[in-house]
Amino acid sequence: MTRAMALGGALLRALAALCLLAMMLITVADIVGRHLFSAPVQGTVDLVELALVYLVFLGIPLVFLAREHIVVDILEAAIPHWLVGWLDRAALWISTLLLMTLCYAMWTPFQDTWLFGDRTMDLRIPLVWHWLAIWFGMGLSALILLFRLLRPHAPLRLPSPHDKP
Fold it and tell me: Are 40 and 33 in contact (CB under 8 A)?
């Protein structure tokens, strides 16, 4: 299972990196084309918007998988040590339930976008591709947290670039 998670994490990292690279290249090509040749890249906003959605919502599960999310630990110094673990579990439960609720709430707009055939303005890219990234990212994040809840001692943590060897 750890090997599969590492492979999945590497795939998500690669896709997120490709999205960031695509955003940079499209933006640079648009600026150069606009200023040097008076020929901007058609649909820059649509392409950068789509890449940004994928970058963000592929990145969120990576943050949960690497356990590098933001933690506010103001109370830890003021409460007994044994209670910190309970607070961490409660936060994990609340986060999991919130993400599952978001997935449920996003299903109807996802279906509406699909049924109505909504598209971007310039390139006419179906907006369902945006919603697919959002729903997949939130769903995968919820599954990662649910796995951590059900198997609290499982080695569910990807190595971080910040880890020291």
Answer: yes
